[in-house]
Amino acid sequence: MDMEISAEELKRILDNISRKNNLTIGDDGFSIETCRSMVAVMDSDSTGKLGFHEFKFLWNNIKKWQELPGALAEAGFRLTDPGRNKNDLYSLIVRRYADQNGEMDFDSYIGCLVRLDTMCRAFKTLDKDNNGTIDLCIEEVRGSCSSPCTPEAEGAGHVLLRLRGGAS
């Protein structure tokens, strides 16, 4: 017996749980792409599947993510920012992941949170001095830069992007 869960098996499990709990997940249940994203993010041992502890961690996150604003706040995102429109980040997310009525099915919701989690992990990895700011050249974002960009590199024709984390 395998004891690990593939993206396809995860889809079947989540579809069954969602149906039993009357969650709106669309006509075909969870998309295989969302399940692949979840496996990719939670697969800490790079097997392409979720072991027991990886699945348990994912399941606990899914249970925590009961409503989007609360989940975003817990992840360190501020939904309001002085000088900007109220709920600016929330509005951007709704426009990207919700339907024309502003409603987001559970599959889109989980896909959104998995992508946010991935971005947070990447940001934390790049924030070497843990000050909530990272510097990237546009070439690094595109993947065409062979060395890390610094403020000094900006004068050498590199376009420097300074990103500040959303955590307060």
Automatic annotation (TrEMBL):
<keyword id="KW-0472">Membrane</keyword>
<feature type="domain" description="EF-hand">
    <location>
        <begin position="30"/>
        <end position="65"/>
    </location>
</feature>
<keyword id="KW-0106">Calcium</keyword>
<dbReference type="GO" id="GO:0005509">
    <property type="term" value="F:calcium ion binding"/>
</dbReference>
<dbReference type="GO" id="GO:0110158">
    <property type="term" value="C:calpain complex"/>
</dbReference>
<dbReference type="InterPro" id="IPR018247">
    <property type="entry name" value="EF_Hand_1_Ca_BS"/>
</dbReference>
<protein>
    <recommendedName>
        <fullName>EF-hand domain-containing protein</fullName>
    </recommendedName>
</protein>
<keyword id="KW-0479">Metal-binding</keyword>
<keyword id="KW-0963">Cytoplasm</keyword>
<dbReference type="InterPro" id="IPR011992">
    <property type="entry name" value="EF-hand-dom_pair"/>
</dbReference>
<keyword id="KW-0677">Repeat</keyword>
<dbReference type="InterPro" id="IPR002048">
    <property type="entry name" value="EF_hand_dom"/>
</dbReference>
<dbReference type="Pfam" id="PF13833">
    <property type="entry name" value="EF-hand_8"/>
</dbReference>
<dbReference type="GO" id="GO:0012505">
    <property type="term" value="C:endomembrane system"/>
</dbReference>
